[in-house]
């Protein structure tokens, strides 16, 4: 199958049977992308090649993502109001902001990053025993959507569901068990504070978003991006928006995260001891378009490994009969509902069909 790129040059992609064969061969190694790097490859396999259109618009360094200090909101009412206003502005304008003095000890942040590195860099034979595509309390693999039509990304991942039903400690790898339990507890507390600030930013009672279940589910996801010999041909994560309420991201000091803002890719450089917070699709819907779920991506890099830990707050981690839609307090005759109501399973089922090609949010817009 042949496609034309915007540069006028032709790009040739593998026919589906050949691609499926190579995807399966890669998957069967149970070594992930790190296994390829450990072999010393100089050229990345074709399954990791992305269409040229994926690389349009380079990072723009003229913009700066807001960095918000949470250090004094518990002791100064006027400071809390200022923080709420900054959270409101960032959520409306960017859909992204960074937070410092957030309450999670620096030692815990460091230990969490070190724990992800220990997991992915442990003996390959030990790690292979945990490689799976089944729905388990702890899932390790490379590219959860490997067999979809979405391009294959240059990263390996583990996923652990922590609430509402916490895993048994023995279900977690011993090499990072203790820090996973500690970090998930700390980030859950932080999530409660963030939902309070977001509720107030919407003009609602502090507990409103928590009361409607936005804080019920928590997934902690560890990403490991090995150094890439041909970063110009692939991506760490393809352009996407998060299908949740909010995400809290911890990253090491190797950059690559970008947000799409006014049709331009903006770098989100790592800030020491900071966490990145971004608005997800569900939050954009319940806020009736007031808060923005921004598309973002991660570039591949010759340096590495890049390590990040994403904590996803969403009710999608367990069966939930709730129906969500724009909050009635935010809808009026002058500001009618901009989205139809939906259930979490309905939204996630549609998201899987999109394969990162079409924003699933558009399907629910009125």
Tell me what the structure shows.
The chain is of the alpha+beta class. The chain has one domain: B-lactam Antibiotic, Isopenicillin N Synthase, Chain (Jelly Rolls), CATH 2.60.120.330. It has helices spanning about 15-30, 30-40, 75-95, 105-120, 125-130, 175-200, 210, 280-285, 345-355; strands at about 1-5, 10, 60, 65-70, 95-100, 140, 155-165, 220-225, 235-240, 245-250, 255-260, 265, 275-280, 295-300, 305-315, 325, 340-345. A hairpin with a 2-residue loop joins strand 11 and strand 12. Helix 3 crosses helix 6 and helix 4 crosses helix 6 (about 175-200).
List the helices and strands and how they pair.
Elements: E1 2-4, E2 10-12, H1 16-28, H2 32-38, E3 59-60, E4 67-69, H3 77-93, E5 96-100, H4 106-120, H5 124-128, E6 138-141, E7 156-163, H6 177-201, H7 208-211, E8 218-225, E9 235-240, E10 246-251, E11 257-261, E12 264-267, E13 275-279, H8 281-286, E14 296-299, E15 306-313, E16 323-324, E17 342-343, H9 344-354
Parallel strand pairs: 3-12, 4-5
Antiparallel strand pairs: 1-2, 5-13, 6-7, 7-8, 8-15, 9-14, 10-13, 10-15, 11-12, 11-14, 16-17
Helix pairs in contact: 3-6, 4-6
């Amino acid at each position: 199958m042949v496609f034309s790129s915007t540069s006028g040059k032709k790009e040739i992609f593998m026919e589906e049977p050949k691609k499926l064969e190579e995807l399966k061969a890669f998957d069967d190694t149970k070594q992930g992308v790190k296994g390829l790097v450990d072999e010393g490859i100089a050229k990345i396999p074709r399954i990791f090649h992305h269409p040229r259109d994926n690389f349009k618009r380079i990072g723009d360094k003229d913009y700066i993502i807001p960095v918000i200090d949470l250090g004094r909101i518990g002791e100064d009412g006027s400071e809390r109001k200022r923080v709420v206003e900054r959270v409101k502005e960032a959520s409306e304008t960017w859909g992204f902001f960074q937070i410092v003095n957030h309450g999670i000890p620096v030692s815990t942040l460091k230990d969490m990053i070190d724990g992800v590195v220990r997991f992915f860099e442990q003996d390959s034979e030990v790690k292979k025993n945990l490689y799976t595509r089944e729905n388990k309390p702890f899932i390790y693999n490379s590219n959860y959507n490997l067999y979809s039509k979405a391009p294959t990304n240059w990263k390996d991942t583990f996923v652990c569901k922590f609430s509402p039903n916490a895993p048994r400690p023995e279900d977690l790898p011993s090499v990072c068990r203790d820090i996973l339990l500690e970090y998930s507890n700390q980030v859950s507390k932080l999530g409660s504070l963030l939902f309070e600030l977001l509720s107030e930013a919407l003009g609602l009672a502090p507990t409103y978003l928590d009361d409607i279940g936005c804080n019920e589910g928590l997934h902690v996801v560890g990403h490991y991006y090995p150094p890439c010999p041909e970063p110009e041909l692939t991506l760490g994560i393809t352009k996407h928006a998060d299908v949740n309420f909010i995400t809290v991201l911890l990253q090491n000091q190797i950059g690559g995260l970008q947000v799409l803002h006014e049709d331009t890719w903006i770098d989100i450089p790592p800030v020491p001891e900071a966490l990145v917070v971004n608005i997800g699709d569900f939050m954009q819907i319940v806020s009736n378009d007031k808060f923005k779920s921004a598309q973002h991506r991660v570039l591949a890099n010759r340096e590495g490994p890049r390590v990040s830990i994403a904590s996803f707050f969403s009710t999608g981690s367990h069966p939930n009969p709730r129906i969500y839609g724009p909050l009635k307090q935010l809808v009026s005759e002058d500001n009618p509902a901009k989205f139809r109501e939906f259930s979490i399973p309905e939204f996630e089922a549609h998201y899987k069909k999109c394969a990162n090609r079409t924003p699933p949010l558009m399907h629910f817009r009125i």
